[in-house]
Amino acid sequence: MRLFFTAWLVAGLAVAWHHEQAAALPLSTSSRWIVDEGGRRVKLACVNWPSHLEPMLAEGLSKRALADIAGDVSTMGFNCVRLTWPTFLVTNASYASLTVAESFRRLNLAASLAGVEANNPGIVTLKLVDAFRAVVHSLGAAGVMVILDNHVSKPRWCCDEDDGNGFFGDAYFDPEVWVDGLSKMAAMFAGEHNVVGMSLRNELRGPKQNTDDWYRYMQRGAEAVHAANPGVLVILSGLKFDNDLAFIRWRPAKLSFAQKVAFEVHWYSFSDPRQWDRGNTDQVCARIAASVQQRALYLLDRGWPVILSEFGVDNRGGNLGDNRYWGCVAAAAAGLDLDWALWTLQGSYYIRNGVEGYDETYGILDHEWQQPRNQTALRRIHALQQPFGGPGLAETTPYTVLFHPATGMCLVRRSLTQPQLELGQCNETEAWTYTPEHRLVLRDSSLTLCLRAVGAGEPVRLGLGRAGCAGELARWLRVSDSKLHLAVKVRSSFFRRDTLCLDVGADGRSVVTNECRCLSGSDGAGCDPEGQWFELVTSTRSPVIKSTLAQLLASTLRDWKTWLFTLL
């Protein structure tokens, strides 16, 4: 069952790079960062795993053994699971008293129950809450941290405006019952070292939502969790389906404890309906990224951690809006070095909206939970799983990484003997400096080397010395609304100057310059700029240092041989 993971390792995605050193738990906060007991930054690179639907069992246990799924989460590079749960699991006796088998039988899920019996026989007779605990234990045994996310009150798919689970006072959302449920769950897992956080409520919404009740009950829920389990992070969500935390700007939350509080935000393409497939993609990205910054991510600058606790795409690859959105959200996640939780792990559900075996196209696993639904989509998140900086990670002075969000790769040099520039794994990048003169210079080189364009459709190269770093072909401007296009100005005639943008070649790996796409609103909805988007990410991790002199001599000798051959 692990063959597909082994294939990734053979392809060069070493597990050693996926994981930082084990965190010294419990976690706390230091300004905008989440840190371990030693004060070292811990980047939460999580995946969502639902357990809040009607069966109230973590999805997929009818397809695979629990230990195998937990192990695969770790192997894929995730250090954390956002594990969802319904309030009624611990507050409603009619649910809490059920065994797994009884829960599935009452829903007439005979096929799924048979699958659980075959793959996880020890789970079948457990009470639902004990089965939930078993999932947490298994993740802990695999070295995976857990955030317990109170997703709904009454178990069901989330979320609708009028599903009774949206806001305090809704049909199933009694604030007293909710606080009681949070307290019970927090106390239950007070001794579990890998339970590092509790998210108070998923996607508050609906006609009753208001800020006064948000402060009244969210602050009370936070205090209840901290009193029952002072070791966990307490994560507060916003309004409007967790898209809005702007009100905190004027009225901060008041809590009796400190260094244990974080906020969360959700960001999907459908958070902004129809914009991605109808507008100029670059302008849409700029507009929506600025909006998310103003509504939620501004809290980072005010010293609060903000977790992007849900984001993701249709992994079948055919959703135009999702495909365009991905480059934008990945650029923001890298540029801000966010903690995050991808939606989602499951390839299918026992039942969702009345449909047995419902297929989850946003799932990173396929319908049968056997292999990735889209290996390319999974591969491109690996760079986001690693921290670029933070407390305890100042391994060198800050430098720039050229991150390509559409692929999750970075600009690297191919090898010591082949100095061509191409896309590669981000842990292979060297340290670049983006100067006030808009030059991109290799910082740690014994020679002065700059990124330089050659012409339209031509691979970029390293310019040498003052001459190689001079002129418009080595001056890289951030020319678009999104600030993700890096461009040079090229004189094509006496009267005309063209703008060439850094781009990915037809082979999907080489780095070239081409005419810029989507810089103007007149380009309309038909243009796709994602291949030309590069985010300049600041990092303090140890970069690769390559023997520049050896590369330069080898390149020079090849040039001489070519010149002599042409001459003769």
TrEMBL record:
Span of domain Glycoside hydrolase family: 77-346
A GO molecular-function descriptor: hydrolase activity, hydrolyzing O-glycosyl compounds
GO-annotated biological processes: polysaccharide catabolic process
InterPro entries tied to this protein: GH, Glyco_hydro_5, Ricin_B-like_lectins
Signal peptide (residue range): 1-24
Domain of life: Eukaryota
Alphabetic keyword roster: Glycosidase, Hydrolase, Signal
PANTHER family: CELLULASE FAMILY PROTEIN (AFU_ORTHOLOGUE AFUA_5G14560), OS04G0481200 PROTEIN
Protein family: Belongs to the glycosyl hydrolase 5 (cellulase A) family.
Name the record gives this protein: Glycoside hydrolase family 5 domain-containing protein
Source organism per UniProt: Eragrostis curvula
